[in-house]
Amino acid sequence: MVKNNYSVLINNKYVEVSNIYAVGRNYIDHAKEMKSGVSKNPIFFQKALTSLSKSPTIILPNKREIHHELEVVVLLGKSGDNISINNAMDYIQGIGLGLDLTDRKLQSELKRKSLPWFISKSFKGSAVVSEFYTWDKSRWKNKFWLKRNNEIVQSGKIIDMVFSIKQLINYLSKRIPLLNGDLIFTGTPSGVGAITHGDKLEMGLGKESFMKIDVIDYVSMNEELGTFSLFVDGAADLHSKTAGIGGVFYNDDNEEVYSFSEYLDDATNNEAEYTALIEGLKYGLELKLININIYSDSELIVNQVNGDYKVKNDRMKKLHHIVLNLLEQYDNWVINHVMRDDNIIADKLSKDGRKKGR
């Protein structure tokens, strides 16, 4: 069974995320650019857990104006409620950078109607996060920044927040119990703006680069590129009864456009191989791909999908049936066997996925 795969990386370990909270208007200049005032208390809202993304690719939803909002993101390391300001920093496991991607037109419409912002803030991949790092006060005195096509478009300092990180944790914990693994997006400085297909984004702190991101519009992608390649792999450890799956998409120019790495609970190696293929095909459909070349280092799976081998195991039959149903939704597909040495990236992603369950 697929476990909660919404996790973040800190000190080479994965931490499962519980909730995603975010704060509005926590920088005076941003409040001004949004033609809003600063509230007496923090303005909290939530983003769906399923909006979390660590991918180096942002896939823009069709026909929506998506804006970048750079933020410092806090990862909580223990649960608690009614947390005092003096003890608030003790609850922080890590800190990183993120993008609170926003459907601006929809948000403006919701504001006019005095409705919650949730659906303008929550869509697949709208909560982008970097790797997280242990809190270091001196390190975070530096400016954090976002570059768009090599030009800085947003920058800020933690000290410029209207409500400090300690105050945010204190305020929110008095109203709702906080959990180990909660993320808090702490607000964006001024300079928010639209992102478009082909943009190159980069987040960093001081002279450090935290994350580089490509922006892709799947409609433009399909118009320009046509056929994609999908490499998949599954890795299982029978002793620990853990498994992982991974996959990576490439365009016609052999450029990586999307990847995934997920944890499986109690699966055999063949079941992991099938599940990796299933998840890859699902992601391909979300990307609106219609032509796909698939590569797997499991000769058994390839031969079964191609109809050369019979599927005898009942659990495998179910997975095989799901694969065939997904493939019917593509205009053209081919699945080929490759050697493990030619499937290095997917192999690493599947092993990374298995580590999430440790």
Number of strand elements: 22
Question: What form results from the Cα inertia axes?
Answer: globular
Name of the CATH homologous superfamily of the largest domain: Fumarylacetoacetase-like, C-terminal domain
Q: What is the terminal-to-terminal distance? A: 15 Å
Q: Any guess at the CATH architecture of the largest domain?
A: Alpha-Beta Complex
Count of separate structural domains: 2
Class by alpha and beta content: alpha+beta
Radius of gyration from CA coordinates: 22 Å
Account of the protein in words:
The chain is an alpha+beta fold. The chain folds into 2 domains: 7-217, Fumarylacetoacetate hydrolase, domain 2, CATH 3.90.850.10; 226-355, Nucleotidyltransferase, domain 5. It contains 9 helices and 22 strands. The chain has helices at residues 28-33, 104-112, 118-121, 165-173, 218-225, 269-286, 299-305, 314-327, 344-355, and strands spanning 7-10, 13-16, 20-24, 43-47, 52-53, 57-60, 66-68, 70-76, 92-100, 102-103, 127-129, 144-148, 151-156, 183-185, 193-194, 200-205, 208-217, 227-237, 242-250, 256-265, 291-296, 332-337. The chain has a 7-stranded mixed β-sheet. Helix 6 (269-286) runs parallel beside helix 8 (314-327). The longest helix has 18 residues, at 269-286. The chain is globular and about 70 Å long. The two termini are 15 Å apart. The model has no long low-confidence stretch (mean pLDDT 90).
